[in-house]
């Protein structure tokens, strides 16, 4: 019986030891993915900020500028692209809506971001666009890959429609989480006007052609990223925009269109940290807790099987000879 039990334990030990790397290196890359129907809203603020009054074309300091950023998963489009791409695809329709202190619109820039649900690598398909203009993204945007590495990544900048390195700057602690800190600086670059802008009587899409006045932009972008889920738990930008030259400025060389240190609103930071904390437990379950648990369990079962095998092979002690019974006289 001991030998039979030892063989059963040995089989279980091999099973759990094999299951450990299988779960981590085979199952996890296939099971971990961004859901196609995800919806997320983020509110960021620059307090105070400099903002251009497009009525008077004068830059003024204002109490705050608010940026509402929404990401909405387009399930129908993702299923359509999946049929031709042959892999799990996520389509995010996003909108970056900027409003002044009075709630009036400053600009609204829509995007369609198409990416692989598992790796977050871009998927090039019809509809990939920024503000209605077709683009071909390289690198990541909005989210890092699961199990983010300590290295630089290519990050897509929607204003310039180009990708540039975003640099890993070290490990930080943010709201009790160990996170990776990244920075990207976009130098002054000439960029298109948003198609939706509060310029009375002027079509923003033809503004530069009509007036010769160009729009320029620079930013320092900062992200605190949870390395387990690849989700940013905080983001900031030191953002500047200028209008330069042309007849729109009335002879001035340039004027500030927007300038401010943009930060996530504290209540949205709290919500994001709580959401990421719950999601990272699921990822850790498949990448750490279960694989290591199965490995330890397999080792324990193997040790127990060897003990039982050793006991089954031990020679039995000879039984003591029975003394002859006394015969009655």
Please give a structural write-up:
- The chain is an alpha+beta fold.
- The chain has four helices and 13 strands.
- It has helices spanning 2-31, 75-85, 207-211, 266-313; strands at 39-53, 58-62, 65-73, 89-99, 105-116, 129-130, 133-134, 153-157, 162-174, 177-191, 214-225, 232-244, 254-264.
- Strands 1, 2, 3, 4, 5, 6, 7, 8, 9, 10, 11, 12 and 13 form a 13-stranded antiparallel sheet that branches.
- Strand 8 and strand 9 form a beta hairpin.
- The longest helix has 48 residues, at 266-313.
- The protein is elongated.
- It starts with a helix and ends in a 16-residue tail after the last helix.
| N- to C-terminal distance | 47 Å
Helix content: 25-40%
β-strand percent reads 35-45%
Task: Extract low-pLDDT stretches.
Answer: none
**What letter string, H or E per element, gives the SSE order?**
HEEEHEEEEEEEHEEEH
Tell me the Rg in angstroms: 31 Å
Mean pLDDT, all residues = 90
Largest sheet: 13 strands, antiparallel
| Quaternary state of the chains | single chain
Number of strands: 13
Tertiary shape: elongated
Number of helices, where a helix is a run of at least 4 consecutive DSSP H or I residues? 4
In terms of structural class, how would the helical and strand content be classed?
Answer: alpha+beta
């Amino acid at each position: 019986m001991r030998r039979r039990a030892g063989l059963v334990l040995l089989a279980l030990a091999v099973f759990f030891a094999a299951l450990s790397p299988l779960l981590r290196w085979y199952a996890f890359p296939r099971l971990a993915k961004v859901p196609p129907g995800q919806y997320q809203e983020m509110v960021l603020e620059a307090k105070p900020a400099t903002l251009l009054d497009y009525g008077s074309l004068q830059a003024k300091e204002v109490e705050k500028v608010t940026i509402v950023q929404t990401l909405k998963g387009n399930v129908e489009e993702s299923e359509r692209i999946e049929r031709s791409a042959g892999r799990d695809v996520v389509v995010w329709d996003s909108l970056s809506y900027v409003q002044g202190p009075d709630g009036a619109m400053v600009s609204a820039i829509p995007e369609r971001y198409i990416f692989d649900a598992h790796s977050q690598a871009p998927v090039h398909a019809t509809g990939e666009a920024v503000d209605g203009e077709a683009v071909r993204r390289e690198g990541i945007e909005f989210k890092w890959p699961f199990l983010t590495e300590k290295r630089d990544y290519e990050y897509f900048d929607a204003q310039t429609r180009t990708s540039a390195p975003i640099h890993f700057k070290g490990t930080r602690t943010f709201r009790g989480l160990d996170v990776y800190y990244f920075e990207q600086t976009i130098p002054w670059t000439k960029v298109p006007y948003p198609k939706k802008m509060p310029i009375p009587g002027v079509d923003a899409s033809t503004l530069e052609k009509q007036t010769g006045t160009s729009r320029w932009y620079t930013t320092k972008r900062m992200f605190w990223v949870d390395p387990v889920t690849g989700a940013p738990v905080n983001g900031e930008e030191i953002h500047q925009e200028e209008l330069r030259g042309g007849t729109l400025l009335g002879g001035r060389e340039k004027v500030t269109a927007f300038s401010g240190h943009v930060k996530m609103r504290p209540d949205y930071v709290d919500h994001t940290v709580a959401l990421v904390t719950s999601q990272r437990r699921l990822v850790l379950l498949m990448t750490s807790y279960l694989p290591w648990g199965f490995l330890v369990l397999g080792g324990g079962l193997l040790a127990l099987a060897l003990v039982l095998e050793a006991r089954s092979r031990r020679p039995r002690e000879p039984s003591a000879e029975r003394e002859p019974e006394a015969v009655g006289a």
